[in-house]
């Protein structure tokens, strides 16, 4: 391999960026007590809308905003049906993800496999010249930088601010939150919209950065389900969710390297390998108290195990 370790780490950070952005958005949404199961379709629709808008306007900024708007619209529909009219969140989210996926491929057909604008790589002066760290951390597009900054901001918002405390209260004990005078449904709707916006932006990060262009397969398929798994893996903590995103991106990068070394291994096998590995990790976390596991492994997995918000996915009415 002639790839430097700095370049390899930079590739992992860039590949994980959309998962970090969507994962943090979904973490905030679920912390408020809402499950957005439309995430996979939202990301794919955002990828299509982001590329199509960028192509039509020759502006990646307009494309990212349009992608975020598409995610906002999907989240608003979910909020209207589930929060206002008390439809089942899981059922509505699943239908929406299928609808958004088919809509993305149908509307995006004229833009398939054509060249268009892509996010510009920004090298931070002086810092990008540092050996190893410069290549890894200071040579990305603006959205990748923002994904890194978003991690501490989301953590501080959740655990160090009054609004973060109110958010967690809405997901843990909405009755008590309402008794304190807070409008639970408004809080949930706001964070659902925010999560949808970030999911749409994550889609644009795929089509304008990770794999510039639009086509089938796009490269963003299935990532929404991975994000949902990462939120569980990360215990609804933005730092741990982001760490899980980097682990998943590392597995994907390693699969590409292994494919170049052992050419005889089917490429499809290596491409799907990170997905069952992530599932296996979730299984291990949820069986961390089994007696047949080594004690050291049990203690490690116990640190990863977390309880979901008590009111997650449950209907609540302020009337």
List the helices and strands and how they pair.
Elements: H1 5-31, H2 39-57, H3 60-84, H4 89-107, E1 121-123, H5 133-137, E2 139-141, H6 142-160, H7 162-172, H8 174-179, H9 184-210, H10 223-233, H11 238-261, H12 267-272, H13 274-285, H14 295-304
Antiparallel strand pairs: 1-2
Helix pairs in contact: 1-6, 1-9, 1-10, 1-11, 2-3, 2-4, 2-9, 2-10, 3-4, 3-9, 6-7, 7-9, 10-11, 10-13
Provide structural commentary:
It is a single chain. With 319 residues, this protein is mainly alpha-helical. It has helices at 5-31, 39-57, 60-84, 89-107, 133-137, 142-160, 162-172, 174-179, 184-210, 223-233, 238-261, 267-272, 274-285, 295-304; strands at residues 121-123, 139-141. It contains 14 helices and two strands; from the N terminus they run ααααβαβααααααααα. The longest helix is centred in the N-terminal third of the chain and has 27 residues, at 5-31. The radius of gyration is 20 Å and the shape is globular. The mean pLDDT is 88. It has a single domain, classed as ABC transporter involved in vitamin B12 uptake, BtuC, CATH 1.10.3470. The termini are far apart. Strands 1-2 form a two-stranded antiparallel sheet.
